[in-house]
Prior knowledge:
GO molecular function, one term: betaine-aldehyde dehydrogenase (NAD+) activity
Keywords: Oxidoreductase
Largest sheet: 7 strands, mixed
Helix content: 25-40%
Organism: Achromobacter insolitus
Domain Aldehyde dehydrogenase: 17-481
EC number: 1.2.1.8
Bound molecules: nicotinamide-adenine-dinucleotide
Amino acid sequence: MDVIDSRPYDLLIGESWRAGAEGRTFDTFNPATAQVLARVHEASAADVDAAVQAAHAAYETHWRRTTPAHRGKLLRRLAELFERDREKLAWIETLNVGKPITHSLDSLKGMPASLEYFAGIIPALRGETIPVGNVDVLNFTIREPLGVCALIMPWNYPMTLTVNKLGPALAAGNTVILKPSEVTPLSSMALARLFEEAGFPPGVINVVNGPGATVGERLVTHPLVSRVSFTGGTVTGARIQAAAAADVKRVTLELGGKSPLIVFEDAPLDKAVAVAAGDLIKNSGQVCIACTRLLVQESVREEFLGLLQQRLDAVRIGAPTDPATEMGPLVSAAQKQRVEKYVGLAAEEGALPARYGQMKLEADTARGYFVPPTLLLNSHARMQSAQDEIFGPVQSLIGFRDEAEALRIANDTRYGLAAVLYTRDGGRALRMARGLQSGSVAINTGLRTSFDAPFGGYKQSGIGKERGLEAIYENTQLKNVKYDTTI
Ligand code: NAD
């Protein structure tokens, strides 16, 4: 499928598709071949300012006064267009991120429904009347949009994460500036072309590309931006929070994780193994909620490991465009280097790295950024390799003796994004669910986020919630009004 433009991708500012004011472009790569895939125009500070001005003007002149029904109609139309172009968007995601095409198609399947969901919950944006001390005073609340929202994206799931941020921001009546990751901007650019066709007026959605240190930082510190919604690494998130604090912007941060998969001896081991293997293989482990610490009760540790090794030995690694491929490359040379560095560190710390899979590379993929599934055997909880987010196909295997030790190790991390546990003991499952310091907990099932349930991290995994009803509230502010009815 011919889905990539040969000319550089433009910025979208107000009604115009255009090059950056300073004429710079940057390359984006196909990680499976290490070849340049496309060129993209880079926004200058003046372009970011122009995008913010366009979003602010659209908000002030008309968008803030649109009816819920109108915003819902536009989001539903966008959902239809997404469905029409879903296959094309999936191919772009595969070529730019390196995801196997079967995975790209699968992960985009739910996106039209996500847009429809946010269109459907707009009526939840209601205020209430509140009886206050003076019976002559009518007291009521109004839920209002925030204004211009900056949406700053990572590279691992460019399309799904963008849709799940855009939906609630627009549904709530805000205008947006989207800043895709400079590593994987192409699927967002293809999505941006659907906005106008869906009927969104110029300025409601703007797209600026370029590095975080310039384009991202300019957005975060711009006085007309009211809210920053960021998904990315914890260090970047902390930096954004500090920058946004200067003028007290609303900030939502979806950050890193080091999620545990906790397997008790009464667990259906085949199911727990499927989750462990799936999290290692899916998007080559570059998933914020992936379980990267396998905590397995000592009595079943050997059996669990045997089954897991059997599955990992069979993983088909290769060209992401091949429908038979289960695991593609990492996103970039830098990410591959980071992962290999951590595997080396784990060995120095006394863990035993073991590698699996059937890697099948051809002439064109020989230089791609492939890393095989890797288990760090003999790990323990305080090793740096078991504490830091590696963001690749690497899992630490750690044993535990009893429930108390499992909980202690699970919580022994600065992250708190997600946790999975397998046990047939209902009481223990619920005790663990209460005790885990984690924004999401899955019991006897793998973690799969859904657009209609709240998602967000505890501890250094983030602030605020995205998805579900909470996402639309996060995009609004609440005004209290008092009216003296005697006058
Ligand atoms: P990153 O933090 O390097 O970059 C994310 C975005 O921030 C990019 O668009 C980048 O240009 C921008 N940026 C960088 N510095 C900036 C600055 N100073 N000001 C403003 N913007 C700036 O993250 P990444 O490497 O693209 O993504 C991987 C990380 O994302 C992992 O840590 C992963 O766990 C996390 N992630 C979290 C979730 C979640 O929902 N919690 C989901 C996906 C990925």
